[in-house]
């Protein structure tokens, strides 16, 4: 099929390209096979052919195409409690709200209701690829995968592994490291089998919940499984003073060093939050090729610090964006792009020293809205080694069509882009395509 319209796409961390009234040609595999610019002499001919074959979709002048967004960190079961109990510190929130909720996912009927609603909500917010934490229960994890396949979402899905009796409740933990590893392996095979039947993108992910939840045997075993099956890994790293202090007390190492010690920092790893990383940890992440899932809304509640995103990007680390449902209350990566910029501005130093606060932050911390857009698209794609996140020949045709509000003043492409990212609400997202297939229509 061929889509005629104007689009924005990130070229790199700092630059966003605009292409007005182009033809985006999508092949039968769901890949963007050709882009014909408006001033290309072939434009008229390609357009006529597409029209004759009845495969042309023409957008209106107030509509814009953006790549589908990539959410690197979602706890699928926690959708049921999004927006609850965010006044509690992380450890208390886990024990009093989160673990009791996740334990309910032994009931697949409950899981079915929560997961189907969540996936629709993510699609409606323009998200086309998600890295999910499931629960410890494989039956509901597999259901999550099936629902991703049914609704078309690209899903990277992990069976949560957590066996440490000191830090997990008896009613919600893997019985032993051995059992957790067997169940993880069983889940890997089940997803691989499902993927071979249904196609799309379904990838099993090695998922130690976080260092405190796991025994040494489990961390070591999961590192071996990731290596054996060449799989992505996800976890939390250095989120909160509490987690940071816990790793120091138990291992006399930073959280990042512990994960590395067990073979869990690889070029396919995605670590959420990382607000408390020190300079050596950031360099370690870079050396291993490990990506960071920046979760700016969640970090405002549980992170105990603002992630110095600018410095980490300048260092050359891989970074993408995550909603962290339900540490983050919103399923929208638009809201997280906005919060990423706002948090970075608050980290920035003030120049005016005449008021009482004589030290207001860190200079050169601000990120731009273009940087944030990069994180939510190409940055996420790089973290997952997925050929998506851009409107470009050879990329998967994952796209969203946005209805832009009418501008009351004259605007250039950069202005239109900025307003789109700050102002787009769920109701402005008209269509979402994954691999060229329409998966959501508003
Ligand atoms: N650390 C361990 N588990 C969790 C979780 O579910 N959410 C967040 N934000 N941090 C965690
Ligand atoms: Fe999380």
In short:
With 442 residues, the chain is of the alpha/beta class.
Fraction of residues in H or I helices: 25-40%
* Uncertain stretches of 5 or more adjacent residues: none
Distance between the termini: 20 Å
CATH architecture of the largest domain: Alpha-Beta Barrel
* Rg, Å, rounded: 22 Å
Coarse shape: globular
Bound molecule kinds, no repeats = guanine, fe (iii) ion
Percent strand: 15-25%
Oligomerization: single chain
Main beta-sheet annotation: 8 strands, mixed
* SSE succession: EEEHEEEHHEHEHEHEHHEHEHHEHHEHEE
- The first-level CATH class name of the largest domain: Alpha Beta
What structural class results from the helix and strand content? alpha/beta
β-strand number: 16
Tell me the number of helical segments per DSSP (H or I, 4 or more residues long).
14
Q: Give me the CATH fold name of the largest domain.
A: TIM Barrel
Going by CATH, what is the homologous superfamily of the largest domain?
Metal-dependent hydrolases
Domain Amidohydrolase-related: 64-439
Function: Catalyzes the hydrolytic deamination of guanine, producing xanthine and ammonia.
Family: Belongs to the metallo-dependent hydrolases superfamily. ATZ/TRZ family.
EC number: 3.5.4.3
